[in-house]
Design a protein that fits this description.
2 domains; 6 strands; globular; binds cobalt (II) ion; 50% helix; six-stranded mixed beta sheet; 198 residues; alpha/beta
Length: 198
C-alpha cells in the first residue's frame, strides 16, 4: 500500500497537470458546477464513477453507498437527489450497479455481517420479491449478478416514486432515469433498458 503522503504528492501533480492543460480549469469550476447527470452507484473502489464514463470534475453529481440503494427514508440520498434535480437541474439520473457486488453477495448468502445487514435488508427485500427467478440460477455468482440487475431496476423505481422526481415531472422538467450495470471483469456498462421519463 502507498503511504498516505503519496496521495498528497499525486494530488499536487494532478492539479499542476490540469492547469498546464487548461490554465482556467479550477477558476472556472470554482465559479459554478453545471452537471447534467446524477450518478447513484456502489461505494466499491473498483467502480469510480467519473472515470468509467469519461467525465471531468464538474460534469457528474455523485451519490454512492453500499449496493447503490435508494431508500425513501434515507435523508442523505434524498438530499443529494433533491439538490441535483431542483437546484442543479440535472437531466439524467443514472443508477449504476455492478456485477460481483460484495453488498449483493452479503445480502444473498444468509449469514450475519453485523450492522451492514440492516442496510442490506433493502436488497434482501428485492431478493425475496424475485426468489423463484433467482433460484433458477444454479451458479451462485450468476445469482448474485442477476440480483445486482434486479436491484438496479428496483432502485430506479424507488427514485421515480420520490416526491422530488414526481414534482419535477409534474412541472414538465426534463428528467430521465436510467438503470445501468457495470462489469468488473471487462469495464463495460450495460443499459438494463428500464429508462423512464415523464
Ligand atoms: Co458493490
Amino acid at each position: 500500500m502507498e503511504p498516505v503522503t503519496t496521495l498528497l504528492d499525486n494530488n499536487r501533480k494532478w492539479a499542476a497537470q490540469r492547469v498546464k492543460n487548461d490554465p482556467h480549469f479550477f477558476t472556472r469550476l470554482a465559479g459554478q458546477q453545471d452537471p447534467a447527470y446524477l450518478w447513484v452507484g456502489c461505494s466499491d473502489s473498483r467502480v469510480p464513477a467519473n472515470e468509467i464514463v469519461g467525465l471531468d470534475p464538474g460534469e457528474l453529481f455523485v451519490h454512492r453507498n453500499v449496493a447503490n440503494v435508494v431508500v425513501h427514508t434515507d435523508v442523505n440520498c434524498l438530499s443529494v437527489l433533491q439538490y441535483a434535480v431542483d437546484v442543479l437541474k440535472v437531466q439524467h439520473v443514472i443508477v449504476c450497479g455492478h456485477y460481483g457486488c460484495g453488498g449483493i453477495r452479503a445480502a444473498l448468502d444468509g449469514t450475519a455481517h453485523g450492522l451492514i445487514d440492516n442496510w442490506l435488508q433493502h436488497v434482501q427485500d428485492v431478493k425475496e420479491a424475485h426468489q423463484a427467478e433467482l433460484l433458477s440460477f444454479a451458479d451462485v455468482d450468476d445469482r448474485i449478478n442477476r440480483l445486482a440487475e434486479l436491484n438496479v431496476v428496483e432502485q430506479v423505481r424507488n427514485i421515480a416514486r420520490t416526491t422530488i422526481v414526481q414534482d419535477a415531472w409534474r412541472r414538465d422538467q426534463k428528467l430521465k432515469l436510467h438503470g445501468w450495470i457495470y462489469g468488473l471483469t471487462d469495464g463495460l456498462i450495460h443499459d438494463l433498458g428500464v429508462s423512464v421519463s415523464a
